[in-house]
Amino acid sequence: MPDSVQKLAALTARVAELESERALTLRLAQTDSLTGLVNRGAFTAELCERLEAAKQDDGQVALFVIDLDRFKHLNDTLGHHAGDLFLAEVGERLRCDTQAGELVARTGGDEFALITTGADPARRAQRLVRLLSQPHMIYGRMVSPGASVGVAVYPDHAADAGDLQRFADMALYRVKLKGGRRWSVFDAELRDENTRRRTLEAELRRAIPAGEIEPWFQPVIDSKDGRITGVEVLARWRHPEQGLLAPAAFVPIAEELGLIGRIDEAVFEAGCARAAPWVKAGLIEAVSFNVSPRDLLDPSFSRKLIGRLGKTALPPTALTVEITETFLLQDLALSRRHIERLNAKGVRIALDDFGTGYSNLRALMHLPIQTVKLDRSLICDVAKDQRVAKLVASMLHAARALGVRIVAEGVEEEAQAIFLRAAGCDRMQGYWFARPMPADQMEMALKESHADTPRFFTAEPTRRRARR
After folding, report:
1. Hey, how many other C-beta atoms are within 10 angstroms of the C-beta on 150?
2. H or E element in which residue 3 lies
3. Taking a C-beta distance cutoff of 8 angstroms, is the pair 287, 346 a contact?
4. Which sign, positive or negative, has the C-alpha torsion 290, 324, 402, 221?
5. What does the pLDDT look like over 376-420, one tens digit per residue?
6. Helix (H), strand (E) counts: the chain
7. What is the DSSP string of 348-370?
8. Calpha distance 41→44 (Å, rounded)
9. How open is the CA angle 411-416-417, to the nearest 5 degrees?
10. What predicted TM-score, i.e. pTM, was given to this entire model?
11. 40, 105 Cβ separation under 8 angstroms
12. The pLDDT value given to residue 443
């Protein structure tokens, strides 16, 4: 055989080998390694292609998004390997149940999705719920987390892939709120909700630079003499049409849009500007700000905060930054760096929602944390349930032994305040004393607190006056 022919044959074989390797690499890049289903990227691309085809043919495309119920509980009780085994089983069930023209994918975690162009959406959703609710044996234990399904249909509900996915997710979320193990389709109610939400998103983007997000202040009371010793700064949105909006109405949306950092900065700067004169005049000792977990996970968070603080007139020693136990568990090393850097500048750290998670006493022993805030879920029953009372008393004792100041939040009844005072709680805040209020009203309350006898823990405390 001529040498040129041999070389051509070898080259042809090498090209075929490279094409095979390329096809394998592409297939692996589009496949979820645990279940063997297509992954999110490949699924999204296929969804877009099917929508384009449906537009040409006046066809229909139904999207089903699937979320396993109580999957976290399975992971926590049997371990992550058991969770992986169950995810693989779910993938196999979905693959075996896939009908002609359907595509099924694992889109992440315990989330799956399915596209169909032929089956009746309601009947298909019911079948998926039944299929994924069947029990399965793992490590000798029968498990059956169940599944929730959200459905959206092109062109009935959405005209593009982005809206179709978002609307199916909204239907799924409604199912999860109702306890799961069922399905829901996007409808007029959810469409109205989506319209309100999109309007709120646009208004929120405008409201931040317009200064409509403003700081409000809730007093922190000294348990011994009833005077106001500090304030916690909270965000309120003074909406031009809807009036005053509490954080629950806009913070979740701000977090999803990545705007929470800008809101925190705006409220921080405005709050410091209003509170700095109160500190200088000796009306309060401390100003507390909550920090979102997302901000805390930024390695440069503490440096940025110190920089912003330096642009205000508030002394670092008057600032308290409230962080949650959850953040400590997420990244203890990063937590330590932030806390130590802030402490070095004189900023104090408070551990918020104490008593709702692991109540990490080790963190209080080894980190420079000056304050713990007992969560309101403990305070609400402290004067009614002896077990809760003993628990809170023991937590107070442990914190005192570590030299940590204690603030009880959510105090709404006189009996709670009396118990906490007798148990040795240092500071309290809550509706029994005062609701959050705008800066002008807060300033008046501070001046009254220092000019008159303390308004709290008198012989006959009155709810009406405390909540004015």
Report:
1. 27
2. helix 3-29
3. no
4. positive
5. 888 887 878 888 888 888 888 887 887 888 899 999 998 899 999
6. 19, 16
7. EEEEEEETSS---HHHHHHS---
8. 5
9. 75
10. 0.69
11. yes
12. 94
